[in-house]
Amino acid sequence: MMTFFLIVGVICIFVANIFMGGLRSSEQQQTTFHTEYHEPRSVRLKPALYFGLAGFASLGISALIYFL
Predict the structure, then answer these.
(1) Is 24 helix (H, G, I), strand (E, B) or coil?
(2) With CB atoms counted within 10 Å of each terminal CB, which end of the chain scores lower, N or C?
(3) Residue 18 burial (CB count, 10 A)
């Protein structure tokens, strides 16, 4: 069960990074930031927040199972 939550947590955090654009170089991030309007940015960051929270919660559950 711990392995399941660990894998789900890592996948969720990876997907959150993809939505945020955290896997790009700094030049690509800067170009995207300056050419993008506020609305598409907030639409893209909302799923990243949910995936990130789900990932950290899943990793927390995995750690709880491991230490108990």
Answers:
(1) coil
(2) C
(3) 13
**Residue of 59, 50, 63 lying closest to 15 (CA atoms):** 50
Tokens of 51: 């995936």
pTM assigned to the model: 0.79
The SS3 call for residue 41 is helix
- The three-class DSSP label of residue 58 is helix
Q: How far is CA 53 from the centre of its chain?
A: 8
Report the amino acid identity of residue 52. Answer: G
Q: Quote the CA–CA distance of 68 and 52 in Å, as a whole number.
A: 24
DSSP state of 21: T
Query: For residue range 29-60, what is the model confidence (pLDDT) as tens digits?
Result: 778 777 877 777 778 889 999 999 999 999 99
